[in-house]
Write a structure and sequence with these properties.
The protein is of the alpha+beta class. It is built from ten helices and seven strands. The protein has two domains: 67 residues, Winged helix-like DNA-binding domain superfamily/Winged helix DNA-binding domain (Arc Repressor Mutant, subunit A, Orthogonal Bundle); 144 residues, Beta-Lactamase (2-Layer Sandwich).
């Protein structure tokens, strides 16, 4: 037992603290002062300043009028990480196919541990009025996409049993008159993404047997099949 413990590589405290510092920023608190960083890390203001300066020089933090926020390099790293997800790299043709079938905006999202993150969007270019969804947007847990992730393991919210039964989730968006319908995308037996259609409530209906619902389920199933789901 002693040999096993001694053979473990030492923890680099500086790297660990830097990672913890970056993890302090959330959508609820996108900006933090130096005093807040020090207090939440449990270090002095001078130590917090040293870490913040190093991360700022690396582009991982930037200074704001009230303190610090995540820097542009974080976006580059996030994009690289997402590109490594197989579902993101192969989903393009499936989104395009779905848009051509129903003429609505198709959106692919992945789960970040707390909420869905939009990673790919295919717009309906033939409509006079287009509904644009920005890649990188963080959706709410109560969105159609959020319901999909929450309905299946590891969360398995019992209040969303109908989502598992129907293979679909529906939710109005935060914009009046706009709604979304989402279906799960599987890799093996795990939900790795949600595929959604976003449009007006007049066309994106909650009926599970509608033409749009059928097209969404079929496309999500085809994408899952390529992933081995």
């Amino acid at each position: 037992m002693t040999d096993a413990i001694e053979s473990r590589p030492p923890v680099n405290q500086s790297i660990e603290r830097a990672a913890r510092l970056l993890g302090l920023f959330t959508t609820e608190e996108p900006e933090l002062s130096l005093a807040q960083l020090g207090a939440q890390l449990g270090v002095s203001r001078a130590t917090a300043h040293r870490y913040a300066t190093a991360l700022r020089n690396a582009g991982l933090l930037r200074m704001t009028s009230s303190g610090y926020s995540l820097g542009p390099r974080i976006i580059e790293l996030a994009s690289t990480a997402l590109a490594g997800l197989r579902v993101v790299s192969i989903a393009g043709p499936y989104l395009g196919q779905l848009v051509s079938r129903v003429n609505e905006t198709a959106v692919l999202s992945v789960w970040d541990g707390e909420a869905p993150i939009v990673v790919r969007v295919d717009d309906n270019t033939n409509r006079t009025v287009r509904i644009n969804v920005r890649a990188g947007s963080r959706l709410t847990a109560d969105s159609a996409q959020g319901k999909v992730f929450r309905a299946y393991p590891p969360i398995s919210d019992p209040s969303l049993a109908d989502v598992v039964r129907d293979g679909l989730a529906f939710s109005p968006s935060g914009i009046e008159g706009i709604g979304a319908m989402a279906a799960p995308v599987f890799q093996a037996d795990r939900v790795v993404a949600s595929l959604a259609l976003v449009g007006t409530l007049a066309t994106i209906q909650s009926a599970v047997d509608s033409r749009i619902a059928d097209a969404l389920r079929v496309t999500a199933g085809e994408l899952s099949a390529e992933l081995g789901g």
